[in-house]
């Protein structure tokens, strides 16, 4: 009979919302987890500056200390869970843990998107694992799907609703016809948005997650600095309503595609046909579409944040690392799915070179010849119109909204056309441009 293996000893850095969830899930499902992993997994030490709060959670079942560096250097810790967040101290702690031979589990998407190349290279050198399922889409196992479940496929594209805060805001704006600022205030009141919501509403959080997925899907290094990022703060209830009337829904999407010239890496509001499943992902939920050449489109849906969903992913990583802890490093799943010496230098495409379809809304003076001017400018830029809606002017009003949907066009051509349209004396103010994806 096989001798029982000693429990895996875990050091937890940060026992806030997610850390508390990890502690609870590990305790509640200890027997199931042991049966799955082949040995017990125990958090033996917790580092948190709020030591009294931490002791209130763990009671006397784990040691609590204030210095996280003590944990990553301890000989009595096998795996370190980093749940501190941020770019600076977290990076130092993760690298120090790796240099001390510890495996690392992290939910820190910002850290990996900006410093992942350095962290993975160090882990490879030291023969340890860095697991990060919780860094993207909370409890939705998208990293495992991309690294393992879809390994037979040449991934063609990924399009994801990967920020619950912005998705909640867009859902509320559509359902209630409210302006952005009012819904943002409601999201903050409910705890869905931070006091400073910039990372969420301007697409930065989604770009961190997209950078990670793109690297795994296409076997390229992390390149967050090359991601195009545009948020939802300028969207109006009018645009959401017009999109609905045309059979589309506006979502903040992270999109990464393999095209002939390189890899697209972009986050922005996007019109999606209402009949697509992903268009119906509402509230704070996440939904990610992945198109593989063999499997076709696959959809991953679930809670993208929160204590328990994120803890679910962290503990799943703990189980994975525990199963593989004795395996030859050469036989483990590579961090970015492809063997480290097989990463590609395919370029990230500048946004001006991206080709997609567009929604263009402009306010114009209601008089003859306006449409002719618009269509001429678009035709000169090789942009063809797929659909057009001209609203009737309100009584006594001399200005109307014109909404155009274009066929696929190159972004820089659209930029040039918009500039010329805005110079027309009959066009009032700026042209609203939102990109459109059919996601077929």
Offer a quick outline of the entry.
With 440 residues, the chain is α/β, with parallel strands linked by helices. It contains 15 helices and 17 strands. Strands 7, 8, 9, 10, 11, 12, 13, 14, 15, 16 and 17 form an eleven-stranded mixed sheet that branches. A six-stranded parallel sheet has the order 3-2-1-4-5-6, with helices on both faces.
Keyword list:
440 residues; alpha/beta; Rossmann fold; Dihydrodipicolinate Reductase, domain 2; Alpha-Beta Plaits; 3 domains; eleven-stranded mixed beta sheet; elongated
List the helices and strands and how they pair.
Blueprint: E1 8-13, H1 17-28, H2 30-37, E2 41-47, H3 51-58, E3 63-65, H4 68-73, E4 79-82, H5 89-99, E5 103-106, H6 109-126, E6 130-131, H7 142-149, E7 155-161, H8 164-176, H9 180-189, H10 198-201, H11 204-218, E8 228-229, H12 237-245, E9 248-259, E10 262-273, E11 285-292, E12 296-303, H13 307-324, E13 355-365, H14 370-380, E14 385-390, E15 399-406, E16 409-410, H15 411-422, E17 427-436
Parallel strand pairs: 1-2, 1-4, 2-3, 4-5, 5-6, 8-10, 10-17
Antiparallel strand pairs: 7-9, 7-11, 9-10, 11-12, 13-15, 13-16, 13-17, 14-15
Helix pairs in contact: 1-13, 5-6, 6-11, 8-9, 14-15
Q: Considering DSSP H and I runs of 4 or more, what fraction of the residues is helical?
A: 25-40%
- Structural class of the secondary structure composition? alpha/beta
Q: Which shape, going by the Cα principal axes?
A: elongated
CATH-scheme architecture of the largest domain: 3-Layer(aba) Sandwich
In quaternary terms, these chains amount to single chain
Count of individual domains: 3
- Low-confidence segments: none
Mean pLDDT, as a whole number? 94
CATH topology tier name of the largest domain: Rossmann fold
Q: What's the N-to-C terminus distance? A: 54 Å
What characterizes the major β-sheet? Answer: 11 strands, mixed
**Percent strand:** 25-35%
